[in-house]
Amino acid sequence: ATLVFTPYADPSTRATQLLSGALDIASFPDENIGRFENNDSFSVDMVNALGTYLLFNERPGSVFADAPELRRAVAQALDPEGFTQVVTHGRGQVLTSVGSAALPCANTDAALLPGHDPEAAGELLDGVTIRFVGTVGVDQGNEYAAEVLRNAGADIELRNLDNAQWSEITSGGGDDWDVTIQADFNVVGSLPSSLLRVMGPPTEDGGRNKTGAVNEEGYDALREAMSTTDPDARCAALGRAQESFLQRVDAAPLAGLAEASVAAAGVSIRALGDYIDPATIRVVG
């Protein structure tokens, strides 16, 4: 059999092509999912493929440098449940770490998060200017978060950028932005991959950490986790790493964005945790 991958940027086009028989498998992150629900001609696998979380720039020149209480206030202003409803139409998963709960050793203790407290947030955010940069991939979430922060009294300067511009700015090591909603596609299905976005060597030093704050305590725990083969010790170390960044509020979990992998009758693909693996495509009929 010959496997052909055809790029369609528009999800509606992908859905139409799949319904017409021009495609055998496609994925959808939006309301096009509904076009295949209760349709026996297709199988639907739902995953939370993309994790989103507030990520703060803590470099000198940012309003969030050396300001954990201000970072906490931003996290308290946003309701992850409301964010999830707006961005995923209720199909997503509220996160309690920088990755899906399906990832091995991911934190599931919501008590470690700042919690939704708009009154407390407003006391600190009133009159604060915040430069918010976002990717158009989660533009609805960016607009929602910006409006919530404005309602809390903050002066929000929002820039919705294409992925290339957004990545260049948030990975450039500069002080020309304060906060973003990180859209994290964890293709390897490994929690350390996502944790390295919020601890360890910063991007300007060749690392993946966009915050600019190394967080030695958390990074030490992460390195311990990556160096052991004992599963219990690994989870214990990853638990300490997650508790560290959550207490510091280097980032604040929001939502796992739901994506549906839809296959026509006679074709299958496997979901491994929250990852759809193209290598598992099979002709079954």
UniProtKB/TrEMBL annotation:
- Keywords, A to Z? Signal, Transport
List the InterPro entries hit by this protein, alphabetically. Answer: SBP_5, SBP_5_dom
A Gene Ontology biological process in which this protein takes part is:
peptide transport
**Pfam families named in the record:** SBP_bac_5
Q: Which residues form the Solute-binding protein family domain?
A: 3-172
Q: Which GO terms describe its molecular function?
A: peptide transmembrane transporter activity
| Family that this chain belongs to | Belongs to the bacterial solute-binding protein 5 family.
User: What is this protein identified as?
Assistant: Solute-binding protein family 5 domain-containing protein
Q: Which organism is it from?
A: Streptomyces hainanensis
Q: Mind giving the lineage of the organism this protein is from?
A: Bacteria, Bacillati, Actinomycetota, Actinomycetes, Kitasatosporales
